[in-house]
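Checked the freezer inventory, then went back to the computational side. Two predictions to log before the end of the day. The first one is the construct we discussed on Monday; recording sequence and tokens without edits.
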Amino acid sequence: MKVASPEPAPHLSARSTALWRELVPSRARSAGRLVLLQSALEALDRADQAREVLDREGLTTTTKRSGVVHLHPLVRVEKDSRAQFRAAWSRLGLEWDPNIDGRTR
């Protein structure tokens, strides 16, 4: 009897939902791995959302009062979220593998 894979959380993006559906049947079956995978995908979505805003608004902001230019606060959100994604992805053993993913050159 085949057990159905759990459904992805409804708040995940289409990209993250596709990754969930690809990975859960073969790589993330335990409760702990499912939680870690969901956290990784949420971090990926957060980084992508930050990137979309940065693409529209730019990497810097200027204060209205003094005119001082600052790094956009979402730069750090994107950076931290991508680091969280990479850490969880690595913990799940999902690093790039040239035997599976092909060569870069």
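The second is the one RB wanted added to the comparison set:
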Amino acid sequence: MDKAKLFLLSILTFISCKSNKGIISVKNGLIIENARIISPENQSLSPENYIVLDGDDIIFIGEVKPNLKGPFKTIDAKGKYIIPGLIDSHVHVTGTDALSEKEELENPEIVKRFREQLPKSYLYFGYTTIIDLGTAKPERLSEFNNADIKPDLYYVGGGAVIGNGYGLSNWNDDIPNFIYQENETYPIPKKYKKENHTPKAVVERLVKSGAIAVKTYYEPGFDPMQAPLPTPSKALMEELKSEAHKKNLILVVHGNSLEAHDFLGNAKVDIIAHGLWNWGNYSLDNNNKIPQAIKKTLDTEIENNVKYMPTLQVINGLKALTNAEFLDNTELENVLPKQLKDYYKANADTMYTNIFGDAPKAIIIRNFNRLSNQGKINLKYMYDHGGVILFGSDTPSSPTYGNPPGYNGYLEMIEMESAGIPLHQILASATIENAKAFKLEKLYGTVEKGKKANLLILNKNPLQDITAYNDILQVIIQGKIMNRNTLSAREIIE
């Protein structure tokens, strides 16, 4: 090639590069102008930026407006606050809240309306990613995922239940992932082959199912008049943890008592899926000081980097059964179909009796206030001493109307604040800390280029006001813009 052609080629290349400089090609673009981004990692508020989304991805963040080539929409976020979508790492989406299987069969229209609304209820309160921590009916996960509008859903594949232990109600249940552990008091039927129910076999099945974690239980039961349920031995827990880690899964364990937390903290499990509410024979002294036995257990969890999920709303959700006026809260109209709310009202007394029998409500309230106080004090201790706190609401925790989807998460945040947890920590726990704990930080937890386009546009600063999480202007889920009011259950009944 002669010099004249080389010169001409270089000029054309220069012109082409210059003309394309700053141009971003998009197929399904969205640009957010004047976006002030809050970082959950360092609690900073950015200057006004431009955020460009293309489909499900964040592809650009910068202070200079880029040139977009291709179809795109524009949002002006002037005066608003942008945060990553929230992560609730402890939900159960496969049933109709507080309805038994029999009640579901008897009320198909209520069930239909509830399941249609369920994904929207989580989005209404900003939960764009949720983790189902155990289900015996995985086909209903598919039903949730088939919704047109939904949060991103992850799961633990049904849970690695200890044979004949808590979470396995009877041997007619089709729960293939139970772990075989010899127990003379609770023998396992001979039809089951031990080799199919070892920690290794169970973890391998969970991996194949697409689970992101292994969940098991340390729960001897709630009735002191009954023989304790089987709980995992130290050797079994260590083997289960080892098999999970070999497959790059984390180990999450249910436990809420001193006995459970003491065992699990020393076992160095990854996450304990409940706070330490049940102190056994211990109680606060007159100065509201934590007993040394409780401190020692919490210190062990902190030292061993065991992540702590307080789930304060479990207690409040049960206590709500003592007060049917909870159902008059107008906020419920945004997350529950009217038919289900009416059903709760008509059956409130029966629901109380099903859980508490003929126990006087005053006694139940007093006991649950004590448990709530203990849970909050422990949570504050964990925060003050450097513990890792994860956000999870356990929605729903039990057969109660007191844990409504989406709204229950907001109530959990309010409880965390009332326990003395700073607002920046609440935001981190529900975003980047959850993302890191469940190995999802490449996709979620912060607003950055390369992460998924799940964002919230808030009218208030969540680092200054907890009610910001109930003042959402728009939810962006998988790159789609949703005005909050379109996610409300009110839209269905009007």
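For RB: The first strand starts at residue 23 and ends at 25. The longest helix spans residues 361-384. Let me know if you want it refolded.
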